[in-house]
Design the sequence.
C-alpha cells in the first residue's frame, strides 16, 4: 500500500523567510496530493492540493510542486508570518472515476515562525 | 465546503464501556471516512463508511472494535467498543464527493475521547 514520508518533523524560521516541507510517496498510482494545516486544538484544514497532471500550483504565498518521476512533492510558503505557525500534513491518494480514495498522511511538520 | 458536525465534541469514558460518535453533513456526500489522531501524532484511517453495506476497514482495525453505520448520504456513526486508555484519541469524520467536488476531503471538528 501507499506510504508517505514527510520531512522535516519540525521547522523554525524567522518571520519573512521561506519555509519548505517535503514529502515522498511510494505508490506511483497515487494521483492526488493535498496539504492540510492544523492549528492547535483545531481540525485539519485544506490549504492547497495538486493533481498528478500538474507540476506546480500556487495560491498567494503558498505553492506546491510535484515531481511524479521522483515521487515527491513539496510545500513552499513564502514571506512567512507568525499565523503560519501550525502543524502541516501532506497526504496522497488515488482518486478515479469520481471516487475519492482514502488519504494516506505523512507524520506532519511543526512549523514555528518567530517574529 | 460542507458543514460537518460531530457529536459529542468530547467525552471522558470509563474503561470497558462503549461510545458512539455521530457525524452529520449538511449536504449529500459520496464518501465518508473515519480517522483517528492520537495525541501529537498524524492521522490514521480507521475505515471507509459505505452506505447500505459494511464498512471497509484498514489493517489493524476490526468491525467488532469499531462498528460503523452509514444509513444515508449525510450521516454516519462510529462506535468505539470496550474502550481502553489506548483508545484515547481524537476521532475525525472526513467527507468527500457529491456537492463537494471530485477530490477534496473535508474534516469534521473531531471528537476528543479520553478513556480512564
Sequence:
Amino acid at each position: 500500500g501507499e506510504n508517505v514520508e514527510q520531512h522535516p518533523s519540525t521547522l523554525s524560521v524567522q518571520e519573512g523567510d521561506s519555509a519548505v516541507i517535503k514529502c515522498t510517496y511510494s505508490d506511483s498510482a497515487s494521483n492526488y496530493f493535498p496539504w492540510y494545516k492544523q492549528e492547535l486544538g483545531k481540525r485539519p484544514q485544506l490549504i492547497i492540493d495538486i493533481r498528478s497532471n500538474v507540476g506546480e500550483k500556487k495560491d498567494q504565498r503558498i505553492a506546491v510542486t510535484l515531481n511524479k518521476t521522483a515521487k515527491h512533492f513539496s510545500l513552499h510558503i513564502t514571506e512567512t508570518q507568525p499565523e503560519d505557525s501550525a502543524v502541516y500534513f501532506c497526504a496522497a491518494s488515488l482518486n478515479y472515476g469520481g471516487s475519492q480514495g482514502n488519504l494516506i498522511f505523512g507524520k506532519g511538520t511543526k512549523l514555528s515562525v518567530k517574529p | 465546503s460542507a458543514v460537518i458536525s460531530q457529536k459529542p465534541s468530547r467525552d471522558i469514558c470509563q474503561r470497558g464501556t462503549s461510545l458512539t460518535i455521530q457525524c452529520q453533513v449538511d449536504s449529500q456526500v459520496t464518501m465518508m471516512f473515519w480517522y483517528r489522531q492520537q495525541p501529537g501524532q498524524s492521522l490514521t484511517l480507521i475505515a471507509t463508511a459505505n452506505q447500505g453495506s459494511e464498512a471497509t476497514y484498514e489493517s489493524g482495525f476490526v468491525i467488532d472494535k469499531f462498528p460503523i453505520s452509514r444509513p444515508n448520504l449525510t450521516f454516519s456513526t462510529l462506535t468505539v467498543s470496550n474502550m481502553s486508555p489506548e483508545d484515547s484519541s481524537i476521532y475525525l469524520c472526513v467527507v468527500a464527493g457529491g456537492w463537494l467536488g471530485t477530490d477534496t476531503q473535508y474534516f469534521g471538528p473531531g471528537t476528543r475521547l479520553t478513556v480512564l
